[in-house]
Amino acid sequence: MSVLVVGLSHRSAPIDLLERVVLDAEGARGLATRLRAGEHVEEVLVLSTCNRLEVVVEAATFHGALEQIGVALGEISGLGAEELATHLFVHFDDRAVCHLFELACGLDSMAVGESQVLGQLRDALARAQRYGHLGPSLNPLVQQALRVGKRAHAETAIDDVSRSLVTLGLDRARSVLGGLGGARTVVLGAGAMSGLAVATLVREGVTDLVVVNRTPERAARLAAQHGMRSAGWSELAEEVASADLVLTCTGAVGHVLDAATLARAGTGRDEQPVVLLDLALPRDVAAEAAELPGVHLWGLAELQQEASGASAEDAPDAEAGPVRAVRELVTSEVASHLTERHTARLGPTLAALRSSAARVVDAEMARLDQRLPHLPEDERAEVRHTVRRVVDKLLHTPTTRVKQLQAGREPADYAHALRELFDLDSREVATVSTPPLGVADSVSEITGEGGRR
Description:
The chain is α/β, with parallel strands linked by helices. It has helices at 15-18, 25-36, 62-77, 81-87, 94-105, 116-130, 138-155, 165-177, 192-203, 216-225, 236-241, 259-265, 300-371, 377-406, 414-422, 439-447; strands at 2-9, 41-49, 52-59, 89-92, 185-188, 209-212, 229-231, 245-248, 274-278, 295-299.
């Protein structure tokens, strides 16, 4: 068995396609339960965020697990085989481990280095643990990924690199409004992204801010943390009507602000500009709203483009050092994980080798008892002890050496070599060391097209 990661993200698919596969917590649990029930998946974790849907599994067989996941994602998204294959990415075994660690560090995020993904990964882990979807492989792996992510933020300057989507959006709002200090601001939603938005707005000097949420208690709690006020969902139109800046991230299915609502809210504003920052996926604000007079609407797609542009321009000098430091950390942690995993795989084989040797000793002592039935018990015990010592000495060097070799970087399967040399049956499940075909070929075989990152 080996780790397999299959999914769609902002790097492999456009935002409008990602909207079609976004899952809430219940949807993610349903997908994990379905995959776990299949014969080719032993453990599973589903990570669904505003810009990615990733399925991490411990695969009993590579092709079988890949097919299960591909079929499930196709049904969720409604995508045809060709379109799905064009945007699907697949990581296997060592590369899958590296991807998880990079993900936890924020290296795969829209805004490089952002830390929100750590909380999202932690929530996905808790959900998978709660419903029994994890086991001895993925559970420690994902926990290690979280530790690597924490190390990256604690031990490197990666936080200085990241420009959050909230910050990018506020930069655009400032260019329209001329400043944020006096802007009357409405934040829709009370989740993690909304909490980040409120905290950032307060740091920017915003003093007139209201949090609106379907659950009034959550809105009141978030607003109270920053000395702001909250409002109920029924007051949404009234609050938006007098707002200069509206930042929304509700996680709702369907639009919470459409063009008609915004047109009514804008009556009497004398074409005073209003900025709408839509950080939700699916979108909270209908695209037609951007056509209204004085309305400036930016969503994830536009902010993603700006984040990518900023990284490309600024990375050579300001960002190279921290990003390089995190990549070196990831490389070290991946090597450590693989060493531990490779060594652990020897355990059942070495146990079987010792059991086989013990059986040989027992058989030979039984033969000695038949040939020398009158041998005194103390002499018989001494013979048994001597034989065992000889066997132990003969096995000591090869078992020690094979552990050293397995802990190295060579990909050889020394456990398999031991099983063959000593004709062992360790009763362990066969380990998939490499996919039977290239990853892209395997995706093509299932969907009809080649997968790409």
